[in-house]
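Support request, priority: normal
Reporter: lab tech (M.K.)
Component: structure prediction queue

Hi team, I submitted a job for DDE Tnp4 domain-containing protein from Anopheles melas yesterday, and the status page still shows it as pending. I've pasted the exact input below so you can check whether something in the sequence is tripping the parser. The sequence length should be 268 residues. Please let me know if I need to resubmit or if it's stuck on your end.
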Amino acid sequence: MSFEMEADMVSNRAIVEIVNEYRMMLQQQIALHLKRQRDHIVRMRRRFLSKLARRLHRNYILYDRHRRSLLSDVSFLNLRRREVQLAMSRNGAQQPVPEQLHLFPANSEHEFTEEQLERFRINHATFQCLYDQLEHELEAADCEPAMTARMRMGVALYVLGTGKDFESAATLFHLHSRAVRASVHLFCSVVNKLLRDRQIDFPLSRKHVRCGVKEFEELVGIPQVFGAIGCLHIPVERGTVKDAAKYINSKGWSSIILQAIVDSRGRW
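Reply from support: The job had stalled in the queue. We restarted it manually and it finished. Here are the results:
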C-alpha cells in the first residue's frame, strides 16, 4: 500500500508540474501575443501619422501655391489700376475706372515682357523661336475675333503653361472665353501640323511597325506592342528656379516630368 501511495504522489506531482509548465507556456504566449498587438498598433499609428503629415504638407504646398498665384494676380491688377488712375488724373478724365483691369491688350502688336513670359513658364528666346516657326500659320488662320499671331500664341501658352481655365484667361486678356478656346485649339493644331514631324520621329511605315512589334514579342513575349512609354520625375531644387512651388507634383515635392517612348532596343 505504501508503495502504491508513493507512486500516486509521484504521479500527482508530475501532473502538477505539467499543468504548471503548460500554464506558464500559455502565459508566455499570451504575453507575446499582446506585445505583438501593441507593436502592430504602434506601427500602424506611426504609419498613419506619417501619411497624414505628408498629405497635410502636400495640401499646404498646393494651398500656398494657389495663394501666391492669387496674390500675384491681385498685385498685377492693383498695379494696372494705379497706372490707369494716374493716366486719367493726368488727362483730367472724369470717367470712372472700370471694374475689370487686364494685364494684356487683346488686339495690339504686343511684345511680352520677361515678367509676363514667366507667367507662361517660358523664356523670351524660346517664345521667339516658337513664334518665328508658327507666325505664318497663326496669321493666315481665319479665326474670330481678329488677333495678332503673337497674342494668340501668348493666350495659348498661358492656358497650357498654367492650367488656368478659359474663363480666367479670358478675364486676364480681356477676351471672350470662346476666343481663348479658339486660340488654344488653333495653337495646338498648328504645332501638331508644323512641329510634330520635326520633333517626334515615329516609324510610321508598315514595315517598321511590323518589325518593332516582332522585336517586342520576341523580347518579352507580348504581342501587338510597338513601344514602351514611361515617365520620370526630375527633382527641381528651390535655388534653381524662381518659384519652385509651381512645380509641386502629386507627391508633394518639386519636379519636372519627363515622358518618353522607346522601342525594344531602348531607342527614343
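The chain is about 65% helix and 5% strand. The chain has three domains: 1-89, 102-199, 206-262. Let us know if anything else looks off. Ticket resolved.
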